[in-house]
């Protein structure tokens, strides 16, 4: 079999850090290369996390560089690309920061080698994540019930592939008389969508489905098809947010400091009320995806970085919907905190009411009253 490269990117966030620990513990037979891409504008807490991971993983996390520092007068990656792009800052509509400093160095370092990339999207998230367009790079999601990417599922469950999947399930001991065999035989259409068929097969047996997909991979040019065996096909564990925090704490790496809630006070209706804020994501300290309350967090926890973020703003462009100079005004800060606290309480109340409603249904089961709550 051809050599296959196994890689896992460390963003500095909780999920990728937890995945690295998880993979090193549960799949030591996989020779995984850990890497990170430095934008030059990360929080100190991010670099601290990567340093701790280095020792826990027992191997160095490789830095994929996005610039050749010897051939540019600007040594900071973000500032380099900002200058090359004529000073145009990144935005949700022009995310050159991600492509230039994350995706391009990743694919440049991978080259043409058959590669499996492990990505830490959790089982309680509803998103696909980055899928490379390069045929030699295949993405796997170990934390999810469905570890396969959308492009793989689309090919496996294609109606033209039904006979092949039937044969695989037969070889795995599934009789034609069993209900699941008939589900395999059903075509995907508007009545039986791809996601419905996928969920049916996963709910019956994740391991059986993974084995079927693996057999199909062997008929393709996907990197996994080049392997004699793949240990993740026997994994049916689903990892959610609570598990991620447990993995980090139990490993000794700990949760990235910027996730830890910090208490603040704000006046509401003449009374001082307490709330907490933190950062919700890893990434550059001036990331334009930050919420207003996260900008307030940066202002109060890293005032020096907040000032640096202001320096990048110019007429006609701001990181948020308003300039950071306006956002830092005392009354505006109070308003953001108040709005955030009230919104958080509203969400908690809705959650509490839903849990109470569910408890009522459960307590009514068996006494003939359950229908009253439906």
What can you tell me about this protein's structure?
The chain is α/β, with parallel strands linked by helices and 374 residues long. It has three domains: 1-144 and 238-256, Rossmann fold, CATH 3.40.50.620; 149-236, no CATH class; 261-361, no CATH class. Helix content is 45%, strand content 9%. It has helices at 14-26, 44-57, 77-84, 96-110, 150-156, 162-171, 179-185, 194-204, 206-217, 241-251, 292-301, 303-312, 324-327, 330-364, and strands spanning 5-9, 32-36, 62-63, 115-118, 137-140, 262-268, 271-277. The strands form two sheets. A five-stranded parallel sheet has the order 3-2-1-4-5, with helices on one face. It has a two-stranded antiparallel ribbon with strand order 6-7. Strand 6 (262-268) and strand 7 form a beta hairpin. The protein is globular and about 70 Å long. The termini are far apart.
CATH homology-level superfamily of the largest domain: HUPs
Strand content: 5-15%
Percentage of helical residues?
A: 40-55%
Report the biggest beta sheet as strand number plus sense, adding barrel if it closes: 5 strands, parallel
The CATH topology of the largest domain corresponds to Rossmann fold
CATH architecture of the largest domain: 3-Layer(aba) Sandwich
Spatially, the strands of the biggest sheet line up as 3-2-1-4-5
**Separation, N- and C-terminal Cα atoms:** 56 Å
- Structure summary, number of beta strands: 7
Rounded radius of gyration (Å): 24 Å
Secondary-structure map:
Elements: E1 5-9, H1 14-26, E2 32-36, H2 44-57, E3 62-63, H3 77-84, H4 96-110, E4 115-118, E5 137-140, H5 150-156, H6 162-171, H7 179-185, H8 194-204, H9 206-217, H10 241-251, E6 262-268, E7 271-277, H11 292-301, H12 303-312, H13 324-327, H14 330-364
Parallel strand pairs: 1-2, 1-4, 2-3, 4-5
Antiparallel strand pairs: 6-7
Helix pairs in contact: 1-2, 1-10, 6-9, 8-9, 11-12
């Amino acid at each position: 079999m051809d050599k296959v490269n196994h890689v896992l990117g460390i963003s500095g966030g909780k999920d990728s850090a937890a995945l690295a620990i998880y993979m090193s513990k549960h799949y030591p037979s996989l020779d995984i290369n850990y890497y990170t891409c430095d934008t030059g504008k990360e929080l100190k807490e991010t670099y601290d996390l990567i340093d701790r991971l280095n020792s826990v993983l027992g191997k160095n996390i490789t830095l994929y560089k996005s610039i050749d520092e010897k051939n540019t007068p600007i040594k900071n990656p973000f500032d380099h690309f900002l200058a090359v792009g004529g000073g145009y800052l990144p935005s949700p509509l022009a995310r050159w920061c991600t492509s230039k400093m994350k995706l391009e160095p990743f694919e440049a370092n991978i080259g043409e080698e058959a590669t499996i990339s492990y990505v830490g999207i959790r089982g309680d998230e509803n998103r696909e994540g980055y899928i490379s367009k390069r045929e030699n790079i295949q993405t796997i999601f170990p934390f999810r019930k469905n570890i396969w990417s959308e492009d793989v599922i689309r090919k496996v469950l294609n109606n033209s592939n039904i006979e092949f999947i039937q044969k695989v399930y037969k070889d795995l001991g599934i009789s034609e008389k069993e209900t699941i065999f008939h589900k395999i035989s059903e075509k995907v259409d508007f009545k039986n969508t791809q996601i419905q068929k996928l969920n049916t097969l996963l709910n019956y047996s994740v391991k059986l489905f993974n084995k079927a997909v693996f057999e199909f991979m062997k008929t393709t040019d996907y990197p996994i098809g080049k392997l004699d065996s793949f240990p993740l096909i026997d994994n049916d564990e689903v990892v959610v947010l609570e598990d991620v925090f447990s993995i980090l704490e139990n490993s000794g790496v700990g949760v990235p400091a910027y996730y830890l809630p910090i208490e603040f006070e704000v006046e509401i209706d003449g009374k001082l009320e307490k709330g907490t804020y933190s950062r919700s994501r890893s990434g550059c300290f001036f990331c334009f995806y930050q919420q207003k309350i996260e900008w307030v967090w940066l202002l109060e926890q890293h005032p020096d970085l907040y000032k640096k973020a202001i320096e990048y703003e110019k007429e006609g462009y701001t990181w948020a919907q308003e300039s950071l100079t306006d956002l830092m005004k005392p009354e505006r800060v109070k308003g953001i905190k108040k709005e955030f606290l009230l919104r958080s309480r509203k969400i908690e109340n809705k959650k509490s009411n839903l849990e109470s409603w569910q408890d009522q249904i459960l307590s009514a089961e068996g006494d003939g009253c359950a229908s009253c709550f439906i």
